């Protein structure tokens, strides 16, 4: 599974990094960044999906299953 | 819908006031009615304004600062002291510059480093009330915790002036305060802050005030007024809304012993508790924008220069986004709620506010694992003010 961030949409709610820190982090301004280039570690798929769904700005997406 | 029902809904819309405590006490019903019958409607209160009540429409308006500007003011009614609430009431490059300057100080990693301070402050405040068996948690915990934290960050001494002045600015016009009272409160607060700024001019420190003095917009340093407005709003913004959130969350536990038992047994559940509290008891019920052009929202025409309210409290209860939207789901994340706004004006202090609410709850229930409202009417979640609760001192002593 792979996820993607639309950086233009992110305003830094940081729900993604709170829910799935193995996949999402934050830069120095608090905007979302991909920790492992978007690859979701095995076992973290549900958290990654919840993180994508939890973005109020809809800045995140599942790029590949 | 009968003519009679239609008339009642039209009346509800035309007289709608998001500040009204009676409305907020039954907001589940009011918001659902409005979302269903007239999602974008006009109220005649406070000089007239439009309201977006559905999640989707709040999302659209909040994410489009070109069409919906903030610089004309976002409070309905305005605080009435005649100064912009910076950066909340800024647009364009200025807004961007304020945020770039402040965001690193409030980013998740930076806020995580504040946890130790917040916890020590909360533990000390709780320690003071545990032996009493009864306390007003608004005055003893919800208000002082954010006050102590923001003074620490700004690098200023705690002053009684802050609460009086910010109370008057936030709620003065709603409770019928005269213009002169509001202006006096603002003058005292702004004069205090100007002295703090002046003191740092030749001797900058590592606090937020010193940081805010260093900002620039596209190469032009912030003007003295821009610095002052920014510093003052940081103080105001850091106090009342977080206090409201702490109070509402503790009140929820006082009236829902089953949720209290869950979070006492599983402190990790406090995170969801805080998110659900923010969603259902949204501290900032609504903020406005001003249309920059003739436009349309959800099919409703709105002319240029009119105000439109983003009703966050209603968006957070929209069944199109949240299942069983008026229920408190301790087992669910509901991360999409927009208690901290949506779009480029998202609350800069959101991570600190979340931290303060969570720690206030954790520290209180650690010492007082069982408590209830003191006898008397339930003061409700929907207003700032006293929250009297009581507990068994012996049980608290055993927990400590």
CA gyration radius of chain B, whole angstroms? 21 Å
Distance separating the two termini of chain A: 4 Å
First CA to last CA of chain B: what distance? 58 Å
Portion in strands of chain A: 15-25%
The sequence of SSEs of chain A as H and E is EHEEHE
Strand order within the widest beta sheet of chain B:
1-2-10-7-3
E-strand count of chain A: 4
Residue stretches of chain B low in confidence (pLDDT < 50, at least 5 long) are none
- The count of β-strands of chain B is 12
Largest sheet of chain A: 2 strands, antiparallel
Mean pLDDT of chain B: 95
H-E order of chain B:
HHHEEHEHHHEHHHHHEEHHHEEEEHHEEH
The percentage helix of chain B is 40-55%
Beta-strand content estimate of chain B? 5-15%
The oligomeric state of the chains shown is: heterodimer
Question: Poorly predicted ranges of chain A (pLDDT <50, ≥5 residues)?
Answer: none
Note the total helix count of chain B. 18
Question: What general form of chain B does the structure show?
Answer: globular
Mean pLDDT value of chain A: 97
Radius of gyration of chain A: 10 Å
Concise overview:
Chain A has 65 residues and is of the alpha+beta class. Chain A has helices spanning 15-19, 45-53, and strands at 2-5, 24-26, 32-34, 60-64.
